Amino acid sequence: MSQATPKAHQQAGNLWSSRMAFILAAVGSAVGLGNIWKFPYITGENGGGAFVLVYLACIAIVGIPVLIAEVMIGRRGGQSPVASMRELTETEGTRKGWRIIGWNGIIASFLVLSFYSVIGGWALAYVGKAASGMFTGADADAIGGAFGGMLASTGDLLLWHSVFMIIVVLIVGRGIRSGMEKAINMLMPLLFVLLFIMVGYATTTGKFGEAVNFMFSPDFSKLTTEGVLTALGHAAFTLSIGIGVMMAYGSYLPQNVNITRTAITIAFMDTGVALLAGLAIFPLVFANGLEPGAGPGLIFVTLPLAFGQMTGGVIFGTLFFALLLVAAITSAISMLEPVVEWLEEHKGINRAKSAFFGGFAIWLVGVGTVLSFNVWAEVHPLAFIPFFEGKTVFDLLDFLVSNLMMPLGGLAIALFAGWAMKRQGLDQELGLQGGLYRAFMFVLRYLTPAGIAVVFIYNLL
Ligand code: PHE
Q1: 249-275: per-residue pLDDT in tens?
Q2: What domains can you pick out in the chain, each with its CATH number?
Q3: How far is Cα 152 from Cα 373, in angstroms, rounded to an integer?
Q4: From ligand 1's centre to the CA of 82, what distance in Å?
Q5: Residues with CB under 6 A from ligand 1
Q6: How confident is the model at residue 4 (pLDDT cuts 50, 70, 90)?
Q7: Per-residue pLDDT tens digits for 289-313
Q8: DSSP letters of 116-177?
Q9: Where is this chain's protein located in or outside the cell (predicted)?
Q10: 459 pLDDT band (50/70/90 cuts)?
Q11: Is the confidence at residue 334, as pLDDT, over 50?
């Protein structure tokens, strides 16, 4: 039976069991490597407070409006992003070209998971490394060497990438309620507990105040134009918007849930976790005389050094990487969902098989990322284009998804909801009245697109 009918999931009763279940799933998607790995290191690289302020502004101006629009489109279409967009271009009487939003979603979520899984595999590997006590008393060379050694080993990376994908496929294959909701209901509370333990520990380092200062007292002389662009790009990445993931999750959202309020809750929780992750990490960095601007290696190279020196470091190190792993899994399952939803509808294969075949294809593409860190480290496929010189397969995929497909997808979603959809649809899904409706439409039509356009153009230059 083909599911491709309007609000198919609503009719089949295949929905999140409650508003809370949706919030947890969406927060699980939003909270990921972006919050715990990327946010602290880009904050460190960009000098702290001023960057954090700009990032918060971007969440408000771009992140929340696109999140609302994307979930709204998802629920109104009620199917996979491709089918939902096809449906809506018909029922809203818009141009067919908008359907590209759906295809952009399926393709981008496919691609992003292919490399996200490899990094998720690092988290998996590091849970074991931390638990084995190998960081205890190790010096910077040994710890840097362990990280480098892992990247250099095709076999290790392949193994962890495979295990990570298998976990994701097993959860998604069991379906929205019995697979994803169950896993998420268990993993999210665990994530919050681990995070609070880490922040609690950070308050005992004596450098908590310094970290708060670093993150919250803005020094605008440290902010560059590039920093502003990084902040905006990250606001989209961290909220999982622009590539159909929130649209797919929205397609399982019961009709009586208030989208606006829910989206704002999700954005607050995601931002809260990013800030807490900063408050867990920077005190350790300062207490151990490490560099906040150490870059992507911040949590894999710098933090183990701190764990190796502190009392209880084996436990806290293991907890920390477990936290990272949990966050990565709940994001990864959301990336697989649009692909699986599409396979179920269009290829008529059942959910378990869709998850398996989709997951396998993604795993295969992920091998390209695995090799980018070792055998193909010197392979630069698009080196003939000056801008892409020196970019590995992984760099190219990351660039394509994070810098092109996500912001452009977000822009298209804002424009579609803001300009192309009929008022009736917006009213039925959002139920905003009077001034609130006008304010929201103003942001969605003008501010959000302008914000994204600026980043996008600068990114390209
Ligand atoms: N938001 C996730 C993170 O912060 C990443 C993500 C991007 C998830 C796009 C789904 C879709 O890690």
Answers
A1: 999 999 999 999 999 999 999 999 999
A2: 20-459 (1.10.4160)
A3: 6
A4: 20
A5: 29-30, 32-35, 112, 237-238, 240, 243, 245, 331, 334-335
A6: low
A7: 888 988 778 899 888 988 998 889 9
A8: HHHHHHHHHHHHHHHHTTTTTT--HHHHHHHHHHHHH-HHHHHHHHHHHHHHHHHHHHT-II
A9: Membrane
A10: low
A11: yes
Per-residue CA distances from 119 to 114, 125, 162, 169 (Å): 10, 10, 11, 16
Shortest-distance atom of ligand 1 to CA 406: 9
Residue closest by Cα to atom 11 of ligand 1: 240
Atom of ligand 1 nearest to the CA of 335: 10
CA nearest to 147, candidates 281, 313, 324, 297? 297
Q: Which of 31, 106, 334, 413 to mutate to test the pocket of ligand 1 (most atoms within 8 A of CB)?
A: 334
Q: What are the residues whose beta carbons fall under 8 Å from the beta carbon of 201, sequence distance 6 or more? A: 280, 312, 316
Q: What pLDDT sits at residue 46?
A: 92
Token digits for 422?
């009929």
CB atoms near residue 292 (< 10 Å) = 22
Of ligand 1's listed atoms, the one at least distance from the Cα of 33 is: 12
Q: How far apart are CA 359 and CA 337, in angstroms?
A: 10
Pocket test for ligand 1, best of 238, 326, 362 (most atoms within 8 A of CB): 238
Determine the pLDDT at residue 1.
33
Residue 59 CA from chain centroid, whole number: 14
**Which atom of ligand 1 lies at the shortest distance from residue 237's CA?**
7
Distance of alpha carbon 369 from alpha carbon 398, whole angstroms: 10
pTM of the model: 0.93
**pLDDT per residue as tens digits for the range 135-170:** 999 988 899 999 999 999 999 999 999 999 999 999
In this structure, what token pair is assigned to residue 421?
A: 């959809």
Q: Contact at 8 Å (CB) between 333 and 183?
A: yes
Q: Which amino acid is at 39?
A: F
In the reported structure, the alpha carbon of residue 230 is separated from the centroid of ligand 1 by a whole-number distance in angstroms of 15
pLDDT score, position 355: 97
Structure tokens at 304: 């183990």
Token pair of 367, please? 């091998």
- For a mutational test of ligand 1's pocket, the pick from 116, 246, 325, i.e. the residue with the most ligand atoms closer than 8 A to its C-beta, is 116
What is the b/e burial string over 164-186, where b = at least 16 CB atoms within 10 angstroms of the residue's CB? bbebbbbbbbbbbeebbbebbee
Rounded to whole angstroms, the Cα distance separating 299 from 49 reads 20
State in Å: Cα 238 to ligand 1 middle: 5
Rounded to the nearest whole angstrom, what is the distance from the C-alpha of residue 28 to the centroid of ligand 1? Answer: 9
